[in-house]
TrEMBL record:
EC number: 2.4.2.47
Keyword match Cell membrane: yes
Protein name: Arabinofuranan 3-O-arabinosyltransferase
Membrane association type: Multi-pass membrane protein
UniProt-annotated location(s): Cell membrane
GO molecular function: glycosyltransferase activity
Organism name: Rhodococcoides corynebacterioides
Transmembrane region(s): 20-39, 98-115, 121-138, 145-165, 171-193, 200-222, 258-279, 286-305, 311-329, 336-354, 366-385
Keyword terms: Cell membrane, Glycosyltransferase, Membrane, Transferase, Transmembrane, Transmembrane helix
Primary residence: membrane
């Protein structure tokens, strides 16, 4: 009797070996995060206030009653968001939470797949298991599932927005980001992308959907104006806990106000210069422009606004994925040092040296966001100065080795053909 048909397939190339090694590790990591860590939960529970608000909304009770004197998670969604999440309360709390965990996990996986397709990569590429394993090993995905919040769906909305924007579907692109803004305004800075590209139709649905949902929610809510009078003032405050923004850490460590303002001003200038260079020299390189400028806008909003939490970093996945582009700003070691800072699930709390450990643990997200802004600024300004010195600004600011490669390489494959080939 022969058992040869039972022999596992052996990798014949390095790429096959890597895929065979990483796929089972990636899949089991996903299952661990979803059915073990997430189901077990944590003392931090973002889902409970959301479920309670949905239940109150369905039972015609007041929703905006949170006591903001505590550090427990609070319900902060506007009436339009309350309307969207209301169906959660149809189930009992435990099953509803499990469902929400599953939906967010699926949303992250779909978003990662769409990111691969945006960069013309498929499930047969080495990148697929690498991206899946890396994403579900991060703090942002892990804690999104454990704390059970909506960030997975927000990521999916972001990727759909970018993908549909690049494919010239403005109304659907606006709808994708509009649904997320109706719940929370995390992605609102990305609307600068269609604005500078003069794609006005995006705003029809991006603004229209939150407005329509708000108008629908107002008569169904018992206390809709309490969101304005009770919740909005809290949202405008700067808190000194669970806040990795510059102003949050400045408040926690008691830094002088002038120093905090100076830091914010310096980083704001770097962001503005970088955005100008991206618009002037890269707006026609659409995939690079949308993913890089979009990531820069988001990380700037996390670092420079009044509130930035580590698990917001999930929204930087498109920027990180741009590393596969030849002219990516992510192709250097400082960029990945920054990525470690705001994505790593490692804990730096040291029992023998508590002050040292706390400082690194509390500040690593802030320096990670800060460093990625510095990296993007340094790469773009360095390219600009080099191109100006060499007298080739009219041809763009890409590095010389890319220009030499483009002059000697064959004519690029048309987009339609490349897109078809990538599906096989």
């Amino acid at each position: 009797m022969s058992f040869r048909h039972l022999e596992p397939r052996t990798g014949e190339t390095t790429a096959q070996v890597i895929r065979f090694a990483l796929w089972p590790i990636a899949i089991l990591t996903v299952l661990n995060r979803v059915i073990v860590k997430a189901v077990n939960g944590n003392i931090t529970d973002d889902f409970r206030p959301v479920y309670n608000a949905a239940l109150a909304f369905l039972n015609r009770r007041e929703v905006y009653t949170a006591n903001f004197d505590s550090v427990d998670p609070h319900y902060l969604y506007p009436p339009s968001g309350t309307l969207i999440i209301a169906p959660l309360a149809v189930l009992d709390p435990e099953r509803s939470r499990w469902l929400f965990i599953g939906v967010n996990a699926v949303a992250v996986i779909v978003a990662l797949y769409l990111l691969l397709r945006m960069f013309q990569l498929g499930l047969s590429s080495v990148a697929a298991p690498v991206v899946l394993l890396a994403a579900f090993s991060t703090e942002t995905v892990t804690n999104t599932l454990i704390f059970t919040n909506i960030n997975g769906l927000i990521l999916l909305g972001e990727v759909l927005f970018m993908m549909l924007l690049l494919r010239r579907h403005p109304y659907w692109s606006g709808a994708a980001i509009g649904l997320t803004i109706a719940v929370k305004p995390t992605l609102a800075p990305l609307l600068l992308l269609p604005l500078v590209r003069k794609e006005w139709r995006v705003f029809v649905t991006a603004v229209g959907i939150p407005v329509v949902l708000t108008l629908l929610a107002l008569p169904l809510s018992v206390d809709p104006m309490a969101f304005v009078s009770h919740t909005v003032p809290y949202l405008l405050e700067t808190r000194d806990y669970f806040n990795s923004a510059i102003v949050g850490n400045g408040l926690y460590y008691g830094l002088p106000t002038a120093l905090v303002l100076a830091l914010r001003a310096v980083f704001a200038v770097m962001v503005l210069v970088s955005l100008w260079l991206l618009w002037k020299y890269y707006r026609h390189d659409e995939l690079f422009f949308v993913t890089t400028a979009g990531g820069l806008l988001l990380v700037a909003s996390f670092l420079l606004a009044s509130l930035g939490q580590m698990y917001y970093s999930m929204m930087l996945f498109p920027l990180i994925m741009s590393v596969v582009l030849r002219n990516s700003v992510m192709r250097n070691w400082p960029a990945w040092l920054a990525v470690y800072g705001f994505l790593s699930y490692d804990s730096w709390l040291v029992g023998r040296f508590p002050e040292f450990g706390r400082s690194i643990e509390y500040l690593r997200t802030t320096w990670g966001w800060s460093l990625i802004i510095i990296v993007i600024f340094a790469v773009l300004v360095g390219r600009y100065l080099t191109a100006r010195r060499e007298g080739r600004l009219d041809g763009g600011i890409d590095p010389a080795f890319l220009l030499d490669e483009n002059t000697t390489s064959p004519k690029p494959v048309p987009a339609t053909t490349a897109g078809t080939a990538a599906t096989h």
